[in-house]
TrEMBL record:
Annotated region (Disordered), positions in chain: 242-309
Signal peptide bounds: 1-24
Low complexity: bias regions: 286-298
Annotated TM spans: 316-334
Protein name, entry field: WD40 repeat domain-containing protein
Species of origin: Streptomyces sirii
InterPro entries reported in the protein's UniProt record: WD40/YVTN_repeat-like_dom_sf (IPR015943)
Amino acid sequence: MRSLLCAAGAAGVLWASAAGPAFADEPDGFTIGDPRITESSGLAASRAHPGVYWTHNDSDDGPYVYAVDGSSGRTVARITLRGIGTPRDVEAVSVGPDGNVYVGDIGDNLGGTWNHVWIYRFPEPAKLRDATVTATQFDVVYADGPRDAEALLVHPRTGRVYIASKKQGGGGALYEGPRRLGTAGPNTFRKVAPIDLWVTDGAFSPDGTRLVMRSYFGARIYRWQEGRPKDIGSVGVPIQQQGESVTFTPDGRTLMYGSEGRSSEVSPVGLSGEQLPESAKGTGGADDPASGGSSADGPDGKGGSGTELKPGVVKGALVLAAATALVVAVRRLLRRRS
């Protein structure tokens, strides 16, 4: 009997070792501990520094952007922007494929009455420490008139900048900027799709195949298809004091949600199924849409048969089968001895 128990124990250890990494890869949430950050309104995962998130205050703070360590919640750098005007209502931050951080001074608490808003851009620092950097300021106008907005997104492949308005006829809308932002005159953003949410932030997945938009109490995720969002459905949102921000983790498998207030929490919500970006579902090979190769996906973008198993599942099944065979063999051995 002792041999049988040992075999069963071995089976449990093997199964745990097969299933464990899926849980080990899930990031933890964190608390922003910096007393200077009282209205964290935007959140963006750093490209240059894994585990670090950029954030900023909503208003009345000055030209500052903070780099926060996701493992401790400690601020590891405060960047002061020079070469720009006085920030008015900073609402969003995003990191582009060009190595720059984009800051959206795009809020309008007067309900969309300012005739223009601003975007600031500065290079993501190679080393994280308090510093003053020269930023580029871009004037922004909307083709259909002023809008209140809180979400700015930079596509991780094309580098194109998008803004989602907070309210328009009860919902929001996604606006597309010019192919490249310029400083010679206003940059006109044009409406490309309705977004039926009271949008407080949004983000592209790292591979650019998914887009998430959040509101105070909900969120929706979209497939990015031919330069337009295709609604997939709702996605979980944690209960927060005032839901303000969202970003993908660098692997695209988890959303990190932020909130305003002192010592505000940043909470993870894992994605699954069609919510996952293509690079998080595939292997990166020639048939992975995110790799730029050919795709066997059908017109709905869901792939061929839809029955492909994840490597971790296959591994776990094989280990369980081996453990079961071991237990059966030990039981037969005990019968022969008796």
